[in-house]
Write a structure and sequence with these properties.
Blueprint: E1 19-22, E2 32-35, E3 44-46, H1 54-58, H2 65-99
Amino acid sequence: MTGPKHGTPLPCPFCGGNAIVWRKKDDSPPQQVWCCNSVTCGGQLELHEPGQNALAAWNTRAADPKVARLQAENAALNETLYKAIKIIVDIKAVLDRVEHPAP
């Protein structure tokens, strides 16, 4: 999962705490991001190459296999729900014809 490239950092990927971004006064990309729970967590990211964006790197997350599984389950449930709704609509149409036959 990739979060915002600029602006607000995502929570710490290690402890879920807030992150702090260090920015230079010029418009260059941030070079350091660290967890505000640095005493208990120690999560940090520091880039030394000019032009690298520490915030973009911090906000990049590996895909969670659980998310892919849940997305697949959700798609299957949506398909089942769609089919069930179609059956209900078809049954209602038949019942309407039985209750109100054409003259």
